Amino acid sequence: MEIRADRSDLPADSGVLKTVKLVDLMIRYRAEVTPKKRGGKIEDSVLAQMLRDPICKLPLSQLGTTDFARYRDRRLACVAPTTLKRQLNPIQHMFEVAKRDWALPITNNPIKALRFSAKMRMRTRRLRPGELHRLLKATRLCRNRAIAQIIQFALATSMRRGEIADMQWKDLDLKRRLLTIPVTKNGHARTIPLSNDAVKALPRRCSIEGRVFSMTGNAIHLSWDRITERAGIDDLRFHDLRHEAISRFFELGLTIPEVATISGHRDATMLLRYAHATSSAVFKKLNRVAA
Asked: Is there a catalytic annotation at residue 185?
């Protein structure tokens, strides 16, 4: 499949593609397209990492699906298949832009024929006993102590890292305990209720450019990596706090529509993928029913 796609990646007249390397395409895409995207900062970091790979030195005349298959195999040693597929989405879009808007004679997109034979894994990672305490203890050595409040706020609201980083004071109604999130991943704004824990996690009204927390999404990501390493906690991502929060909402007895109002999910199936009850919680409920 990948070899056949390789042979049809380029048109017969491919002279111009001999002078353009993948790195040239990516640099232009980062400069002209990525900044216009809502998640541009994160995408820029992903592309910057990929630019260090040898595949970027290849001219487009020699570049095909088999080259990306070798890149895929290298990266799968470091990241999950779902993560890699997400990271390659802008590369696939880049080839479409190059063909449509930059007049490069590319007939087929080499990423479209790329296959991921590895079985997709659905994460079920939740906080284990004592891990939250270890995380918060590790934040004491951070230069920006806001990360401790951000962790607690994420657990209280199930909000995504980017949503927390972009929070504005003007979108907070502390009197009614409501927060409006105008820009979300699925494109639909939502207003969520703030629990006592969420309100306690808010910083005092001191911000940069109206933002509630003084950390960007990338700064949170970097700080999280240092904290988990310092705490000696493996395989725990910041996004897992969203899994934890949603699972806790269900354990509190909230209904699917109520949890969806907070999390922003518009599909019950997707929402339930985030909900993972602990054995201890189920055990307590079973005993309560039996009693």
From this structure: yes
274 has catalytic annotation: yes
pLDDT tens string 25-41: 999 999 999 998 877 88
Predicted local confidence at residue 268, as pLDDT: 80
Asked whether the beta carbons of 159 and 142 are under 8 A apart, the reply is no
Q: How far apart are CA 72 and CA 187, in angstroms?
A: 30
Of the residues 21, 30, 161, 265, which is catalytic? 265
3-state secondary structure of 278: coil
Alpha carbon 159 to its chain centroid, in Å, reads: 12
State yes or no: is 71 an active-site residue. Answer: no
Instruction: Give residue 280's pLDDT.
Output: 66
**Catalytic residue (choose from 185, 188, 284, 285):** 185
CATH annotation of 131-290:
1.10.443.10
pLDDT in tens, 61-99: 999 999 999 999 998 887 778 788 889 999 999 999 999
242 noted as active-site residue: yes
Catalytic, 239? Answer: yes
Distance (Å) of CA 261 to CA 80, 90, 180: 29, 30, 12
75/81 Cα distance (integer angstroms): 9
Query: Cα(257)–Cα(259) distance, rounded to whole angstroms?
Result: 6
DSSP for residue 253: T
Give the pLDDT mean for 108-130.
Answer: 81
Q: What are the extents of the domains in the chain?
A: 2-100, 131-290
CA distance 60 to 17: 5
